[in-house]
Amino acid sequence: MxxxxxxLVFKTNIQTEDHLxxxxxxxxxxxxxxxxxxxxxxxxxxLRIEANELVCGQIIHLITNAGFHCLELD
Amino acid sequence: MRIRDEHKEAxxxxxxxxxxxxxxxxxxxxxxxxxxxxxxxxxxxIYFKNKEDLLNNLYNxxxxxxxxxxxxxxxxxSSLEEGLWLQWKNxxxxxxxxxxxxxxxxxxxxxxxxxxxxxxxxxxxxxxKRFVMNAIKRGEMTRMEPEIxxxxxxxxxxxxxxxxxxxxxxxxxxxxxxxxxxxxxxxxVVKALHP
Lengths: 74, 195
Description:
A: alpha+beta; 4-stranded antiparallel sheet; 31% strand; B: mainly alpha; 68% helix; elongated
């Protein structure tokens, strides 16, 4: 079976090391996610996710529940 | 969901190189690049994780292009004079055909932004090293510090090419490099390297 990678890009307010730790706790249980990073240098604090399946809604739900902004960019 | 588009990726890379060459690294950002390339910031993040990833990617592209041109028809077993001549000709071609890439390399050389562990350039370095070691073994040149070798073997070439690119020298307002001029300089360089 060939897994295709989806790349999701979100505008967030994830900025500090502390925020990153929280995000790590949220995302690490999601096995569909292959790789993720936050560009904290960017004005939009871009969260970039490579996932094996579409998990966009789930990610927005989990991250906003933790008190962050998270808006999918397209 | 986003689909990778190689054409778009190449456009973003070319635009980024142009921006860095004309404005330097300091003002460079993913957002500015998005505006200049007329794509959304999200599009850029499809292809590159962050600024550092993009810069490394650009460096690899430029470096690979340089390596391909510099090593075209190059044989590390060739004589010092023949090999050096081909290096001068190939490097001149790279500078004249890819002027923005050349300027980008010059910018990047001294930048702490690049993580050197991510950078591949061993193919080029191995070839150059073998070429020099062979020349030493054959007694065509004396053993010396690599920096001194570079200064003697390539310094004159880059200095002469600068006159050509700017189109003028201290003696002439219309300076042009020719093969004959380069050959006569090559003779002097080979003589200087000879033990």
